Amino acid sequence: MLGKSSEEGEQVNPKEAIGYSAVVVVLCFALAYPGASFIRELIGQKGLALSPVIALVVVWPVAAGLMYAEAWVQSQSWWNSFAKFWFWGLSILLCGVPLVTALTIPVPVGEGWPAGLPTVVASCPIVGLFGFLVVRRRWRERRQDS
């Protein structure tokens, strides 16, 4: 599992790897997608790029495979020299892919939208997640106070 130290060495089963990777991929794409949309608008491209969403279908299984193999990789003697490369590679895979695909092969939708609207639409998932986390925390606090 992402971030698990080699001392723990617990192998993640395929079902957990698929679930964890889905969460990680969606969160990283939700963070990178508004930036990709904003950069597209700055350089004068119109519309909301769908290619990062399409690329998610490819990135998710790759991330699941990497997450499944991570415990084994961390248990190897060469892990300490490889760790930085591993985490940079995951970061580029999860956050770089939306940026690169949005700028190179955008597959735009809503090219007639006013300026700024594609970035607002791309930001909605992360804003919704933040709102959900705030509401959930307040609900838990109220439940504990009662």
Give structural notes:
The chain is an all-alpha fold and 146 residues long. 74% of the residues lie in helices and 3% in strands. The chain is built from four helices and two strands. It has helices at 14-42, 51-74, 79-104, 117-145; strands spanning 48-49, 108-109. The protein has a two-stranded antiparallel ribbon. Helix 1 crosses helix 2 (51-74). The chain is flat and about 55 Å long. The two termini are 36 Å apart. Mean pLDDT is 85; it is low at 1-7.
Summarize, please.
This protein is an all-alpha fold and 146 residues long. It has helices spanning 14-42, 51-74, 79-104, 117-145, and strands at residues 48-49, 108-109. Residues 1-7 have low confidence and may be disordered.
Give the termini separation: 36 Å
The largest β sheet comes out as:
2 strands, antiparallel
Question: Which overall shape is indicated by the principal axes computed on the Cα atoms?
Answer: flat
Radius of gyration: 18 Å
Q: Can you count the helices?
A: 4
Write the layout of secondary structure elements.
Elements lengths: L13 H29 L5 E2 L1 H24 L4 H26 L3 E2 L7 H29 L1
Antiparallel strand pairs: 1-2
Quickly list its features.
146 residues, mainly alpha, two-stranded antiparallel ribbon, 2 strands, flat, disordered N terminus
